[in-house]
């Protein structure tokens, strides 16, 4: 069975449409990220907010492991962790398995502020998708997962 819109022209148009929509989505995501970051702390930038979100799912962890898990440059991670410490959103604690090593984890304040913002973000997303069917949400999620895996 032939694919709908198959052929060079149809595929090129579909790819251009997708590129345009992804560009809009990424722009909106950056804007939302800045908004959410400011709600966690007025001095928080979007890159450090992204690291804070990542840390919330893996902490406590060594900074070197954060570099490996995120693929970010060591100096970038170090700078962002230092900024998060300055804002009292993360702290370094002794590693119970190696007293010489330090682990990075969210502070109580950091965890509470992030949880509040994330719940608001989820609430907004549910409201945005209120008119979508469950099947459409599942299919969109599946396709986004596929795209993320392929990237």
UniProtKB/TrEMBL annotation:
<dbReference type="GO" id="GO:0003677">
    <property type="term" value="F:DNA binding"/>
</dbReference>
<keyword id="KW-0238">DNA-binding</keyword>
<dbReference type="InterPro" id="IPR000835">
    <property type="entry name" value="HTH_MarR-typ"/>
</dbReference>
<dbReference type="InterPro" id="IPR036388">
    <property type="entry name" value="WH-like_DNA-bd_sf"/>
</dbReference>
<feature type="domain" description="HTH marR-type">
    <location>
        <begin position="15"/>
        <end position="149"/>
    </location>
</feature>
<dbReference type="Pfam" id="PF12802">
    <property type="entry name" value="MarR_2"/>
</dbReference>
<protein>
    <submittedName>
        <fullName>DNA-binding transcriptional regulator, MarR family</fullName>
    </submittedName>
</protein>
<dbReference type="GO" id="GO:0003700">
    <property type="term" value="F:DNA-binding transcription factor activity"/>
</dbReference>
<dbReference type="InterPro" id="IPR039422">
    <property type="entry name" value="MarR/SlyA-like"/>
</dbReference>
<dbReference type="InterPro" id="IPR036390">
    <property type="entry name" value="WH_DNA-bd_sf"/>
</dbReference>
<dbReference type="GO" id="GO:0006950">
    <property type="term" value="P:response to stress"/>
</dbReference>
């Amino acid at each position: 069975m032939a694919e709908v819109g198959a052929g060079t022209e149809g595929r090129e148009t579909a790819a251009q449409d997708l590129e345009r929509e992804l560009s809009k989505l990424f722009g909106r995501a950056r804007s939302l990220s800045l908004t959410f970051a400011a709600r966690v702390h007025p001095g928080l930038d979007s890159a450090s907010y992204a690291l804070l979100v990542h840390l919330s799912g893996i902490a406590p962890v060594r900074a070197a492991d954060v570099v490996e898990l995120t693929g970010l440059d060591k100096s970038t991670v170090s700078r962002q962790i230092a900024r998060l410490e300055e804002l009292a959103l993360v702290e370094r604690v002794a590693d119970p398995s190696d007293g010489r090593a330090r682990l990075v984890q969210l502070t109580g304040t950091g965890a509470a502020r992030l949880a509040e913002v994330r719940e608001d973000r989820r609430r907004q997303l549910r409201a945005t998708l209120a008119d979508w069917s469950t099947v459409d949400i599942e299919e969109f999620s599946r396709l986004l997962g596929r795209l993320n895996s392929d990237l």
